[in-house]
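Hello again, I could really use a second opinion on something today. I've been staring at a protein lately and its backbone has me curious. Can you walk me through what the tokens say about the fold? Take your time with it, there's no hurry, and the full record follows here:
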Amino acid sequence: METESAPYIRPTWDEYFMEVAHTIAKRATCDRGRSGCVIARERQILVTGYVGSPVGLPHCDEVGHLMKKTIHEDDRITLHCVRTVHAEQNAICQAAKLGVSLDGATLYCRMTPCRVCAMLIINCGIVRVVCEFKYHAGAESEEMFKTAGIDLDYVNNEVLKYRDQEVK
């Protein structure tokens, strides 16, 4: 909103696409990780995705979470809901359904993609990933992106915390 003392500042392309990802996240069906994803190339949105169960299967918001424990190398134990497909995976599936190439694209998402998402991103030919936050178990994905030559940028260098993440 413009005022006499503060003129309107147009968002950068990264800010714009991240805002779109926030809007897409409103469709997510898991309250632990309402996140969205935008994949764009040459300043054009190619596809979007959000966290949700596979088509025809029940959603967390309807039947609750399907939690699994993960033991990390530092012996931390975290809980993950495995009922849903990640926003990045759903965006990549949307591209496949529509026959849209993601080669040379940039992916915008809430936090560092998980290991599986990172592998899919690499194989799709995506060249840049922009994350709003870091993921508590994202070091492996960061290393994979570095090795594959994919640029990884963060809006915030903070690790995103969410409900019931750590096992007490």
